[in-house]
UniProtKB/TrEMBL annotation:
Residues 304-462 form the Glycoside hydrolase family 2 catalytic domain. Belongs to the glycosyl hydrolase 2 family. Residues 34-153 form the Glycosyl hydrolases family 2 sugar binding domain. Residues 1-23 form the signal peptide. The keyword DNA repair does not apply. GO terms for biological process: carbohydrate metabolic process. PANTHER family: BETA-GALACTOSIDASE, BETA-MANNOSIDASE. This is Beta-glucuronidase. It comes from Novipirellula herctigrandis. Pfam families: Glyco_hydro_2, Glyco_hydro_2_C, Glyco_hydro_2_N.
Length: 994
């Protein structure tokens, strides 16, 4: 039923009376019978069951293909990757005393179309895969005898070309993590008297410590009847009575709606620190019998926005959320066990998160029960669309409205659910058209919560509706995945969110691209997606799949294949020489993941305009395999978890050394930003600069206030004239008694002329512009024009090739011929179409506002033909987003004097490639990436819950033999960093001297 606000002049009389007699009569009032357990199922792959009357018990019994299935479960656990129709059957008995009662059959969720028969009699029909539905069945039921329940389920179609009930591939509302078919949530029968509670919406208000109970009562008789209705509010484990109210109500046949307002004495407010829950019982007494007794839990809490901040129960709250796919190793969409659900929520809280953002799927009621009890804020997320899906059909608007209505009605009494999130990253007119109507439907159903119309704000910028408001406030809801190298530029971009042009100029950051879409200055800002990725412990995970996994489920199949493919990829590229142990490699990826998450969070928290963030993601699974800080089995991913946890603490400092890599003699700006969510306190700030060997270069200690909020705790310039090598700035913040409040450190490197080195001899340069030649000349390196007749010992550097003319292309061809005769060339720029986030034609699509490529993806991921380099190679985007794309550095002369047999980070953060040569057909890999093919997940013909694409590899430094000579191809960001970062200089000089 839709919630309506009522005004009443009735005098409500509250009394605290003895309820012992009523309690005795209530015990038998509402009688539930679970229908969970073992059912029979027949898979109807050819959709012939309707014509053959498979819903009839006698016909069903004659079918040889029937087998047993557990309910609740998704049918993919029993029939690998099944899509289509299936018939379920369950035999049961109910007490003879149920004769004359109103009996309702409740399904918590069945995906997608359900047709129900009881004892061969039609019961009802439902569309929608993620929300509950109910039918009255007393006319078909046989109390005291055996009953037969049959359910025909038409599941979602995603991988095959079937059309069922007029619904084709990818048309149903869906969740990318697990498209579960069948009866995947619990089923039950409920018996009551003729007068019963259909629904109660509880409206708590902490302003006056009241709770208003909006009752929807049903009366099944033909004539009106006066009943006694009582509301009791209980508190604590001992179920102490807090308040009660009772009055006589005349129920008309059908629906009667009432609203009662009760004062909650000594109200205890629900929060993550104190998740206090009240229980409410609503009893309906008809004559001397209790006709129904309805119960649920609720919390006294308020969540809203004031002064561009979130407020919980009148206190400002900085949101630290984590994105939650809700995929499980065996249950797929439903938790493997209650213990697994408890573990993931507790680990989120232990890591410092106060909110979980379930993504595009309402979690099962059991999971939300735990969120209520354990104290974690949640976002009410609806399965109505998922990044360009479902495919448009005339039914889509109706399905969307249905999911909004049923999801909100199901969960609007939850203490943990504080906001409804309606859409995500939408681009299609049919969904844009629904933004306002669905927001108004959500407001009508629930006046008490925040409503976000679109996460990401892709359509027109996000709108947030405050409680009891129907006019939205503009709101910056930002999605940003900067990748694994959170260098100075990416850090600064996070500082710009919400800033005006004048503020950007004052910060010296004017012209830098601001993350997100439709982001405006002077608006409240929230990063609802932020993070990086790393492989889970593939080896350890596979051991668990062998021990506890289901061999036909995608998670088992994907991870098993992944280990085999990764081992092949390491051998194929030679990267196994750098990382011979796959398990150790996964741990190293998790370290890089942790560093990236930590820096992103620090930068976000250092921006006063930002009110919170949501880290992508809490748990691994499906096509976000690697994006999370917990693996699919709910085990922390070592440093990815620990470093994210460090950045989430209430008191932290962010340390910056600018620039990250310095030329000896260049001054470094060292700054320490304090972020304190607690009360201001006096602190002793110790800043120490030391070499990695532990030798102290500089130290300074200050006693100053560590204020609540964001503050500049330290800023100074560091002289590097006498320094060379690797260093770190270590900052300890202690209270006056010496207790450590927080600490942090930041590494940097100083390069002397000797450490950088200088090539000897002449160098020939071919480029558009003069970036390389002018740099070499400034550093005393002689350059000469390229000539086909010049000495073969002279290396040729091919610099920028953007906007190459026909004459320039001809020259590049001549350089290749020079190489074939025994020469050596270095290509610092490689052009070609991007094979992820790009178009399959030679011209890549322009980047989106957030820096990611437009999602137009080729169907076939082809290897790079080295002969086509550097002007028309195939490049793979390897900057990383929520996919692990870490760059491996081997022990090779190109990297002399720099860390080798490592993953790029730290000293490499500016030069690390954003695109790499996709699976070159020949050549020696010196540096590159091993990741997986994300395009499979963006292709509507393959989009399903069945995991990631195949492992692929790409090179960012490749040495290729051409005839008697060699060409070194590089996609490292050397050109844009020459003369700015000594690592770029050193890499170029190493390449020239090869």
């Amino acid at each position: 039923m839709i919630f309506l606000r009522y005004s009443t002049s009735l005098a409500l009389v509250c009394s605290l009376v003895s309820h012992s007699a009523l309690a005795e009569r209530t015990a038998a009032a509402r009688q539930p019978v679970s229908l969970d357990g073992t059912w029979d199922i027949v898979f109807d792959a050819d959709n012939e069951g309707r014509a053959a009357d498979w819903h009839l018990d006698g016909v069903f019994s004659s079918l040889a293909e029937k087998q047993e299935i557990r309910v609740p479960s998704c049918w993919e656990e029993f029939e690998k990757d099944y899509e289509g129709v299936a018939y379920y059957r369950r035999k049961f008995t109910v007490p003879k005393e149920w004769d004359g009662k109103v009996v309702r059959l409740q399904f918590d969720a069945v995906n997608f179309i359900s047709e129900v028969w009881l004892n061969d009699q039609a019961v009802g029909f439902h569309e929608g895969g993620f929300t509950p539905f109910t039918f009255q069945v007393q006319q078909m039921l046989k109390p005291g005898e055996e009953n037969t329940l049959t359910v025909r389920v038409a599941g979602p179609i995603l991988m095959t070309d079937k059309t069922i009930e007029g619904i084709g591939k990818m048309e149903t509302p869906q969740w990318r993590g697990a498209i579960t078919g069948g009866i995947w949530q619990p089923v039950r029968l409920i018996a009551t008297g003729d007068s019963y509670v259909e629904d109660v919406f509880i409206e708590p208000k902490i302003a006056d410590d009241t709770a208003t109970f909006h009752l929807t009562l049903q009366h099944a008789r033909e004539k009106a009847e006066t009943v006694e209705v009582e509301i009791r509010v209980l508190s604590g484990k001992e179920a102490d009575s807090v308040v009660s109210q009772r009055k006589s109500i005349t129920l008309i046949p059908g629906v009667t709606q009432e609203s009662w307002k009760l004062n909650i004495p000594d109200a205890k407010y629900w929060s993550p620190d104190n998740p206090h829950l009240y229980r409410v019982e609503v009893s309906v007494v008809s004559g001397d019998a209790v006709s129904d007794n309805w119960t649920t839990r609720f919390g006294m809490r308020e969540f809203t926005i004031r002064d561009k901040k979130f407020y919980l129960n009148g206190e400002p709250l900085y949101l630290k959320a984590t994105f939650f796919e809700g995929l499980y190793p065996n249950g797929v969409a439903y938790p493997d066990s209650r213990e697994m659900a408890v573990r993931e929520i507790q680990l989120a809280k232990d890591a410092g998160f106060n909110m979980i953002r379930p993504w595009r799927k309402p979690p099962p009621p059991m999971w939300l029960d735990l969120a209520d009890e354990m104290g974690v804020l949640t976002v009410g997320s609806l399965a109505i669309e998922c990044m360009d899906f479902p495919v448009e059909s005339a039914r889509l608007p109706g399905w969307v409205a249905n999911e909004v209505r049923q999801s909100i009605l199901r969960d609007r009494n939850r203490a943990c659910v504080v906001q409804w999130e309606l859409f995500n990253e939408i681009k299609r007119p049919v969904l844009m058209q629904l933004l306002r109507p669905m927001a108004m439907l959500a407001r009508q159903l629930d006046p008490t919560r925040l409503i976000l119309d679109e996460s990401g704000g892709w359509a027109q910028g996000a709108n947030m509706y405050l409680p009891y408001e129907s006019e939205p406030m503009k709101f910056n809801d930002v999605h940003f995945y900067p990748g694994g190298q959170v260098n100075q530029t990416q850090y600064d971009r996070l500082l710009l969110i919400g800033k005006t042009e004048e503020e950007q100029k004052a910060m010296g950051l004017a012209g830098l691209e601001i993350p997100g879409k439709n982001v405006q200055p002077n608006l409240m800002s929230y990063l609802s997606e932020l993070g990086y990725a790393s492989w889970p412990d593939i080896v350890g995970n596979n051991a668990m799949f062998r021990e506890r996994g289901n061999p036909i489920l995608p998670a088992t199949v994907t991870t098993t294949n992944l280990e085999k493919q990764l081992n092949h990829a390491f051998q194929r590229t030679g990267f196994d020489k750098a990382f011979p142990d796959l398990q150790a490699y996964c741990m190293e990826e998790q370290r890089i993941h942790g560093i990236a998450n930590k820096r992103m969070i620090e930068a976000t928290r250092a921006n006063r305009e930002i009110s919170g963030y949501c880290i992508h993601a809490l748990t691994d699974g499906d096509w976000i395999l690697g994006a999370a800080i917990l693996d699919l089995w709910r085990y922390p991913k070592t440093l990815a978890y620990e470093m994210t946890k460090q950045a989430n603490q209430q008191q932290i400092v962010s340390v910056r050394v600018l620039p990250r890599n310095l030329y000896a003699g260049q001054q470094a700006k060292v700054s320490v930003t304090g972020i304190n969510e607690l009360q201001s306190t006096q602190a002793v700030v110790a800043v120490r600069v030391e070499s990695l060997d532990g030798d102290t270069v500089f130290t300074e200690t200050l006693t100053k206030e560590f204020p609540c909020g964001i503050s500049d705790l330290y800023t100074d310039l560091l002289k590097t004239d006498s320094m060379s090598g690797s260093y770190r700035v270590r900052v300890d913040v202690k209270d006056p008694s010496g207790r450590l409040i927080t600490s942090n450190e930041r590494a940097f490197d100083v390069f002397t002329r000797e450490r950088i080195g200088t090539p000897t001899g002449q160098v020939s340069v071919v480029e558009i512009g003069n970036t390389v030649s002018s740099h070499l000349k400034r550093n005393g390196i002689e350059t000469i024009p390229f000539s086909t007749e010049m000495d073969l010992s002279c290396p040729v550097v091919i610099g920028a090739i953007t906007k190459a003319t026909p004459d320039f292309r001809k020259t590049v061809g001549e350089v290749k011929e020079f190489v074939r005769r025994g020469g050596y060339a270095i290509c610092l720029d490689v052009a070609g179409p991007s094979l992820t986030w790009g178009a399959p034609n030679p011209e890549p699509k322009p980047k989106d506002d957030d820096g990611s490529w437009s999602w137009v993806v080729p169907r076939v991921l082809a290897d790079s033909d080295v002969d086509q380099l550097p002007l028309s190679g195939k490049l793979y985007t390897t900057q990383g987003n929520y996919t692990s794309r870490n760059h491996i550095v081997t022990d090779h002369p190109v990297f002399d004097g720099l860390p080798t047999n490592v993953l790029m980070s730290g000293v490499y953060e500016n030069v690390c490639a954003s695109e790499s040569i996709c699976r070159p057909d020949r050549g020696q890999y010196i540096s590159g990436v091993i990741t997986y093919d994300q395009q499979k997940n963006m292709d509507s013909s393959l989009r399903h819950y069945n995991g990631i694409g195949d492992v692929l590899w790409a090179a960012n430094v490749l040495l290729v033999t051409e005839g008697d000579g060699k060409i070194l191809y590089s996609t490292l960001r050397i050109l844009e960093n020459l003369g700015k970062d000594p690592v770029a200089d050193k890499l170029l000089y190493n390449m020239i001297s090869l």
